[in-house]
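Exercise (ungraded).
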Amino acid sequence: MGPQLSWYLALSAVLFTIGVVGVIIKRNVIGMFMCIELMLNAVNLTFVGFSSYFRDVTGQLFVFIVMTVAAAEAAVGLGIIIAIFRNRESLDVDDASILRL
Amino acid sequence: MNENNLLSLIIFAPLAGAVINWFVGRRVRNERFIGAVACGSVAISTLIAFYLAFKPDGALRSTQPVFDHLWTWIQVGRLRADFGLALDRLSGVYALFVTFVGFLIHLFAVGYMHGDKGFYRFFAFLNLFMFSMLTLVLADNFLLMFVGWEGVGLCSYLLIGYYLDRQEAGDAAKKAFITNRIGDWGFVLGIMLIFFLTGSVSFFEKPEHGVVSALQVIGTMGIDPFTWRAIFAGGITSAAVLLFIGATGKSAQIPLYVWLPDAMAGPTPVSALIHAATMVTAGVYMIVRCSAIYTHAPTAMFIVALIGAATAIFAATIGLAQNDIKKVLAYSTVSQLGYMFLACGVGAFVAAIFHVVTHAFFKALLFLGSGSVIHGMHHEQDMRHMGGLKKYMKVTFWTMMMGWLAISGIPFWAGFFSKDEILWQTWSASGFSLPAPGWSKALWFVGAVTALLTAVYMTRMMVMTFWGADRFREKHIDVQHSEHEKGAHEVHEPRESPLVMTLPLIVLAVLSTIGGFIGIPYALGSLLSQHPTNYIERALAPVVSEITTGGESTHESPNSTVISEATHSAAEVSEERLLALVSVVIAALGIGLGWLIFQKRPLRRMPTILEHKYYVDEIYDAALIEPVNAFSREGLWKIFDIGVIDGFLHGLGQVVTQTGAMVRHLQAGFVRGYAAIILFGALAVIGFFTYWSI
């Protein structure tokens, strides 16, 4: 008996939850960033799982879109992180809480 | 149907003049150009009016009005109002004297306003007034008439407040406008009620446009009973009373007369044109135009007669005690308008119009004469500082003398015939609009006393202005003058006005002298010739309604066009001659009294209550204006505006602020907090759909 859909979904849910919890409890901005990537990829995993389950390529196509967006987001996000670090000399997001630079 | 497109040129020529003067004149600023445009446009109107009235099938020669249907203005359901003009015998008479007297006054104003920096503005407004007044007169339905009615009110406002730098001119302009609004309220309601009663607002039948005449529909109705209750019954009497409220506003009758004396703050030609000769007689015109309505509403006619007689004597007594030359003439105008309404009230519509015409001549003359005096006196209006002017201003003196004789009612001058006609008609009024036969004698007595007072105050004015010592040489000890005339006080000798001002005076003096011959009553005319012709009565009788005791009206019925001599019985004729003699005695007595009293002591103190105009302004202030101000200040402003409106807005602001103060804690700026909120929000949405959908 090979891997079933539910296995992929369970793994995806676990990864997503780790990502969510990580974003909420982590203070390090890079850590949060990685957790966001984790959530995105958890979603990607569900897409792929469903795609193979339904024999439909659309889900896989969507994964490419998500990866592209994630790459763009990573570029912008890292740019923001560098800007914050230059300003605050810190990577703690709670130090950047006054809603302006 | 007698159509003629020239008719619209009568109203549009002055409008074009106004537009040219406003847009071109203000750049050119050449008095010759502006004056030529203003006078020229009115001259065009005058010529066309005369042509259309007197051409072979013209308005005054045939019973068919001249129409000019320009366009259908409003058509909603049953309501139809055209932008259509009509020149019938009544509007023909009006159009003739409005354009002609208006032209003379325009001419006079070119001289009077010389050097004024608002020259173009003045003539633009004056032309706009001519446009509005002629629209009012020539309109073939109530709604278009109302447009002209409002237009003349607006121009009156603009011209009273012409001297922008004077506080009292602005106040007087507002007073005139607001007082007129009160009257207009009645007029509008009257029009609505007439539409409600008849389904039409038109004065004329126009079969090819499918228009029926509201007046003819009224003419076929029964006559309202003579009771006070009829006023509030919503019938013809109510409509007539509402229209009369409009007339009291425009024509300065009790209780809305207060604006007219103050309106003298405007330039004198304006006083002559608008506040003596033309606009203020619009109320009389409207009532005569609606004579079919009034002859079906005896109660309303009685009210008109009462108000007219009361105004006549009331204003005449005030006029006795005024020291400002224009104020005397203003109260005289109010008083004479009272006469006209008295005539309307007793059913003598033709006599009312006759008096309108002669009054336009002699009152315009007197006002222009006073303008000439003021001009010659370097803008001094107080008669106490005049005196002895007959040596310096010969033309003005002699022409004003004609006006004086005319208004006093000396035989053969215009005022005598018209005033005498009104008094006779009042004396012999039938019981139709009067509760008891004695009323006609009582109203006649009031009119006769007014005639006496008129002669007295006009004599006083003439004596104070033209006879006696040269009081202008005395030093003015007024507070206002002492400021800038403290040093060497220079006496400006009065000088005669230029020809452009005296020429209109001369023409009007001639008309004031001979103008009455268009309406010599039979009783007097038959003394001179076998078949005397009363031109004005012959012209106007077909278009006004006569009082009928039966059910049907004689409005435009063919047999009323023939005034047969048989209608004059010998007893009536001799009675009328006797009354005319009484009028002459009264006029002579008034002039004699005035001469005796004021020749020796022109500065005699008059009773304080008269000098203060019976404190009517003060009473209005205390009874109406102050309460309204107080209510506005304490109630509307402090309670409603500050409390309710501002309170609501401030309350709204505070609610927003306080909500924000609470909600702002959500926006801590911690990224993880936002993340948590997103998480719980997403969970809530997912949870919702999991539980409640599918």
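Further reading is listed at the end of the chapter. For now, observe: The domain at 27-93 of chain A is CATH 1.10.287.3510 (Helix Hairpins). The longest helix of chain A spans residues 58-88.
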